[in-house]
From TrEMBL:
<protein>
    <recommendedName>
        <fullName>ABC transporter domain-containing protein</fullName>
    </recommendedName>
</protein>
<feature type="transmembrane region" description="Helical">
    <location>
        <begin position="412"/>
        <end position="436"/>
    </location>
</feature>
<dbReference type="InterPro" id="IPR027417">
    <property type="entry name" value="P-loop_NTPase"/>
</dbReference>
<dbReference type="Pfam" id="PF02405">
    <property type="entry name" value="MlaE"/>
</dbReference>
<keyword id="KW-0067">ATP-binding</keyword>
<feature type="transmembrane region" description="Helical">
    <location>
        <begin position="332"/>
        <end position="348"/>
    </location>
</feature>
<dbReference type="InterPro" id="IPR030802">
    <property type="entry name" value="Permease_MalE"/>
</dbReference>
<feature type="domain" description="ABC transporter">
    <location>
        <begin position="5"/>
        <end position="241"/>
    </location>
</feature>
<feature type="transmembrane region" description="Helical">
    <location>
        <begin position="558"/>
        <end position="579"/>
    </location>
</feature>
<dbReference type="InterPro" id="IPR017871">
    <property type="entry name" value="ABC_transporter-like_CS"/>
</dbReference>
<feature type="transmembrane region" description="Helical">
    <location>
        <begin position="469"/>
        <end position="493"/>
    </location>
</feature>
<feature type="transmembrane region" description="Helical">
    <location>
        <begin position="518"/>
        <end position="538"/>
    </location>
</feature>
<keyword id="KW-0812">Transmembrane</keyword>
<dbReference type="Pfam" id="PF00005">
    <property type="entry name" value="ABC_tran"/>
</dbReference>
<keyword id="KW-0472">Membrane</keyword>
<dbReference type="InterPro" id="IPR003593">
    <property type="entry name" value="AAA+_ATPase"/>
</dbReference>
<keyword id="KW-1133">Transmembrane helix</keyword>
Length: 585
């Protein structure tokens, strides 16, 4: 029998937006449940909170007795292996073929040999009608096909709990019916617990054993399909009939006014009360049955629960439903501290995962090449004028002080210790970091990262570590390059324009500088490269929905990196000057 999920007092907010509060329900093991509700009522957020992809502020989600809300992330990764999930647009990995996407969980989590993997993958692809399309990339197939490929991937490990977000979006009515039929066959064959989030009334009327509805920040009704469909509840009956007249309008904001104006004189049905008889026969259609003739064990259990009165219909209290909940939003300092703490936690997690096997050499090299290729030209173009300006300024100053022979040492130290690591990392953050943040942000809003987490994979190990090593490697390499170009630029301007002598420029450097002065530049490059990468990855992985969310993340990642770099540079410089004695001092 499938896994059990018991939700108690669950509440979720985003900023000032209360998504839903105090949601309590149980998904009966092995049964199919549909969650309905107008757009934007938080159905997808609810589904993600069951699997620990969204962190609710209050409440519990017991998955086979373990609370998904409070267990540590490492335990969540294990618990998620019980789940299969189909995200709204399939959440396929864009760089892999349909075949590799479906094979991915098997290759990661089982010891099956490639021929066995092939058998399972082809069986699931056949089930969803995608045989012949397996070599295509996700970008080359339609939205409906992506959805079916996502379903095949979610079924490939025979999960105990299957979560499906809007299976019908992007599908025509015939394919929607076929998909519904497929889901009932899967349930009959596996007895998995299933939750289907949908707007599709026909699907909700014929597929599930139980139905729930979210509306205006709460669960308005939840219970057996046969009780839910015959209710007189104004919100539920309007939604199920698709009637434009009623408390539900164009948006939740205006619904508040419509709701006040609506005549509720018919009253609400009593919780736990079943309406039966002629009306039930009229409005409750026959539930879909497996074509194979198999008997669904969960359907039998459901009938027993209903007959014995152990499946009451929950109806929210009308008084409660119209009350706006005050949202205790943390103050700005608290939110800033929380974000800083999370960034710091990601940095530590990245360091921990550096030593985890397998080492992803291919992706690290690919990212390294990418960061170097977008950064080296701007880095050099900036370093030439910067070296010149530093040499000219210091040359003028040392001449005024009568110490012109020390121009070389001053310029080289300024370039190697300060300018080169800063320039390198600002360019890496602006070019490479911004691209990394945009890439991870797009993958986040397409639910690719969530899909990875569901498959029990750690995005820090898979994505953040290779990108961090790439940025650190690129920073060290480019720092050397920028230093050389900057020093040559300084030399050229000092010797050609300020009348300095080549011998004095170099000998002053050896007289005043020491090997530690060169090391500090490279150490700074390592630290700054690490900061640029972790900030970019952090913002990318915590992107808000939509293209605007990605844009905001990129912007914040660049600004935050710049601020951190200047701060950390001043601390490192002060430490170096305090701890390392100057040559000749
Ligand atoms: N990561 C996030 N950050 C901020 N707000 C979010 C985030 N994810 C979801 N939301 C907000 O939560 C609300 C509910 O979104 P959700 O996608 O769950 O709605 P839905 O009921 O599934 O809608 P639809 O049926 O249109 O898909 C929306 O207003 C959305 O903007």
């Amino acid at each position: 029998m499938g896994g059990s999920i018991e939700v108690t007092g669950l509440s979720k907010t985003y900023g000032r937006q209360n998504i839903w509060h105090d949601v309590t329900l149980t998904l009966p093991p092995g049964e199919i449940t549909a969650m309905m509700g107008p757009s934007g009522t938080g159905k997808s957020v609810f589904l993600k909170s069951l699997i620990g992809l969204v962190q609710p502020e209050e409440g519990q989600v017991l998955v086979d007795g373990v609370d998904m809300v409070s267990v540590p992330e490492s335990h969540k990764l294990e618990l998620r292996k019980k789940f299969g999930i189909l995200f709204q647009d399939g959440a396929l990995f864009g760089s892999m073929s349909v075949y590799d996407n479906v094979a991915f969980p098997l290759r990661e989590h089982t010891r099956l040999k490639e021929p066995q993997v092939r058998d399972v993958v082809m069986e699931k692809l056949d089930m969803v009608g995608l045989v012949g399309q397996e070599h295509k990339l996700p970008g080359e197939i339609s939205g409906g096909m992506k959805k079916r490929a996502g379903l095949a991937r979610s079924l490939v490990t025979d999960p105990e709990i299957i979560l499906i977000d809007e299976p019908d979006s992007g599908l025509d009515p015939v394919r929607t019916s076929n998909l519904a039929q497929l889901l009932i066959e899967v349930n009959a064959a596996t007895d998995a617990t299933m939750l289907v989030v949908t707007h599709n009334i026909e699907l909700a009327r014929t597929l599930p054993d139980n139905i729930g509805m979210l509306y205006r920040r709460e669960l308005v009704m939840f219970g057996p399909r046969e009780a839910f469909l015959i209710t007189d509840h104004p919100v539920v009956s309007q939604f199920m009939s698709g009637d434009p007249d009623g408390p539900i309008g164009m948006s939740e904001e205006t619904d508040h006014r419509r709701s006040e104006a609506f005549d509720y004189s018919g009253g609400y049905p009593d919780a736990g009360m079943f309406h039966s008889g002629a009306r039930a026969i009229e409005v409750v259609p026959r539930q879909l049955q497996p074509r194979s003739g198999a008997v669904r064990p969960s359907a039998e259990r459901h009938r027993e629960r209903v007959a014995s009165g152990r499946a009451p219909l929950y109806v929210a209290d009308d008084e409660e439903s119209d009350q706006a909940r005050p949202i205790a939003r943390p103050s700005l300092p608290v939110r800033s501290l929380t974000a800083t703490g999370s960034l710091f936690a990601l940095a530590l997690d990245t360091l921990r995962n550096l030593f985890r096997r397998p080492f992803r050499a291919g992706e690290t090299l690919e990212q390294f090449w990418f960061v170097v290729s977008v950064s080296w030209v701007p880095a050099i173009l900036i370093s030439i004028p910067l070296g010149a300006v530093i040499a000219l300024q210091l040359g003028t100053l040392t001449t005024q002080l009568g110490a012109q022979s020390f121009t070389g040492a001053a310029s080289v130290l300024a370039i190697v210790q300060q300018a080169a690591p800063m320039v390198t990392t600002l360019v890496i953050a602006g070019a490479g970091g911004a691209a990394i943040c945009a890439e991870l942000g797009s993958r986040t809003i397409r639910d690719e990262i969530a899909a990875m987490r569901v498959m029990g994979l750690n995005p820090v190990h898979r994505l953040v570590v290779p990108r961090t090593l790439a940025c650190v490697g690129a920073a060290v390499l480019l720092n050397g390059l920028v230093s050389v170009v900057g020093v040559l630029g300084g030399y050229f301007f000092n010797v050609m324009l300020q009348g300095g002598t080549p011998g004095a420029y170099l000998s002053s450097f050896t007289a005043l500088a020491q090997i530690a002065d060169l090391w500090i530049g490279e150490i700074k490059a390592v630290i700054f490269g690490f900061i640029a990468a972790v900030v970019a990855c952090y913002r990318g992985l915590n992107t808000a929905p939509g293209p605007k969310g990605v844009g905001d993340s990129v912007n914040q990642s660049v600004v935050v990196t710049f601020l951190l770099l200047f701060f950390v540079n001043s601390v490192l410089t002060a430490l170096y000057l305090t701890l390392v004695p100057m040559k000749g001092a």
